[in-house]
Amino acid sequence: MELMSSGEFVRASGLSRKALRLYDELDLLRPVAVDPASQYRFYDPAQLEQARLVAWLRRLGMPLPAIREASRAAPAMAAALVTAYWDQVEAETTTRRELATFLIGYLSGKGAAMDSMDNAGKTEGTLAIRYAVKTDVGLQRDANEDSAYAGERLLAVADGMGGHAAGEVASAAVIDALKPLDTQVPAGELLNALDHAVRQASRTLTEMAQADPGLSGMGTTLTALLWSGSQLGLVHIGDSRAYLVRDGKVFQITHDHTMVQTLLDDGKITAEEVASHPQRNLILRALATGLRCEPDLQLREARPGDRYLLCSDGLYDAADAASIASVLCTAADPDEAATELLRLAIEGGGPDNITCIVADVVPQLTPVSGLARA
Ligand SMILES: [Mn+2]
User: Fold this and answer.
1) CA 258 – ligand 1 centroid, Å
2) 26 closest CA partner among 85, 60, 71
3) Of 129, 155, 160, nearest to 143 (Cα)?
4) How far apart are the CA of 146 and the centre of ligand 1, in A?
5) Is the dihedral of CA 269, 272, 275, 278 positive or negative?
6) Element (H or E) spanning 146, and its range?
7) Rounded to the nearest whole angstrom, what is the distance from the C-alpha of residue 152 to the centroid of ligand 1?
8) pLDDT tens-digit profile of 270-309?
9) Residue 20 Cα to ligand 1 middle (Å)
10) How many angstroms separate the alpha carbon of residue 284 from the centre of ligand 1?
11) What is the pLDDT of residue 282?
């Protein structure tokens, strides 16, 4: 077999001398012989194919150890290695694209403007929500201290406390802090994004109370759901609630952060004693000045046909669980369900502000702009 000089190999392969020297140093393609006296390098003509492959794999961006392996493998194995590498690149790119889309929307406050970007290449398999939000001051309070937000990806209920205007200020501030999340948050970032927003809201409340003594002691509950594809992030602190209706059954998916719930959990009181307990209004955790910010976070799987309810305690304190479940299981759509739930609470005396958000999970068959808005 006739060996090729490096000059001949350069001409035949189309690679530069510099590239050949680099491949030698990186152990990607070594000359088969080096003249000990002149240091001239010699290549086997059979290495031309391997040299071309190395050049292509470098252009592809493959890491050096993978190029070494693929360029020395039999063609079928090399093809499998390139396939595996490219699958990994595409998965990483998808994750990074989603994160970039979210960050652009989050930072510019223009979640909706990003829809054209995140709809690209996504025509099936995603879920959408149809929702209705209703709130009422009730029959015994002067003002409504509940705040709520419902959008295509974010639902949130906050029940403010602190008297006078302070409760309204607190619940509205926390809802404002969450609103920027109503955009395309990558599924892997749902809980991070919620946790970050809630901690930011908690700091904002502290700063507001420091700046205005009239607001000291204000606080709010927060129960919120954030969607990404079929994933659902839930953040919860206080005694507002989230319920899930699935396959005709109703599940409460949040745990009240109250004294009576703790006593109930510990077996110290019965469910029947909750309604008459003297400390039934004592909340142990909330977003409030002087309390540590310790929200519950859950990641859940959404399914088409699921129905969610978020509500303040003004609903479940005034209406019995069976009536609420009956409305949730029979109402034709979110608007009807939320209207009926409010009616139940008013019929129950309406002692507190009442807020309900009802959301149905539906397959997303059309672009976001084509969805019916509640
Ligand atoms: Mn309330």
Assistant:
1) 13
2) 71
3) 160
4) 7
5) negative
6) strand 146-150
7) 25
8) 888 888 888 888 888 999 887 778 899 999 999 999 999 9
9) 74
10) 14
11) 87
How far, in Å, CA of 339 to CA of 134, rounded?
7
pLDDT digits (tens, 9 = 90+) for 167-221: 999 999 999 999 999 988 888 899 999 999 999 999 999 999 899 988 888 999 9
* Distance in Å, CA 299 to ligand 1 centroid: 26
pLDDT at 120: 40
**Ligand 1 mean position, distance from CA 326 (Å):** 22
Q: How far is the CA of 352 from the centre of ligand 1 (A)?
A: 6
Q: Which residues contact 244 (CB under 8 A, 6 or more apart)?
A: 250, 251, 253, 306, 307, 308
Ligand 1 centre distance from Cα of residue 221 (Å): 9
Confidence band for 133, pLDDT divided at 50, 70 and 90: very high
Q: Report all structural domains of the chain as residue ranges with CATH numbers, in order of start.
A: 4-72 (1.10.1660.10), 124-370 (3.60.40.10)
Burial of 151 (0-12, 13-18, 19+ CB in 10 A): buried
Task: Judge whether 240 and 178 are in contact, CB under 8 Å.
Answer: no
Cβ–Cβ under 8 Å, residues 365 and 146: no
Q: How far apart are alpha carbons 121 and 323 in whole angstroms?
A: 44
Find the 316 Cα to ligand 1 centroid distance in Å.
Answer: 10
Distance CA 310, CA 292 (A): 23
For 315, the token pair is: 């609903």
What's the 351 CA to ligand 1 centre distance in angstroms? 9
Q: Is the pLDDT of residue 126 over 50?
A: yes
Distance 313 CA to ligand 1 centre (A): 5
Structure-block tokens of residue 330: 């029979």
CA of 169 to the centre of ligand 1 (A): 14
Residues 6+ apart with CB under 8 A from 86: 60
Determine the pLDDT at residue 114: 44
Count of CB atoms situated within 10 Å of the CB of 366:
11
What per-residue confidence (pLDDT) applies to 271?
86
Query: Do strands 41-43 and 4-5 pair parallel, antiparallel, or not at all (unpaired)?
Result: antiparallel
Q: Is 235 helix (H, G, I), strand (E, B) or coil?
A: strand
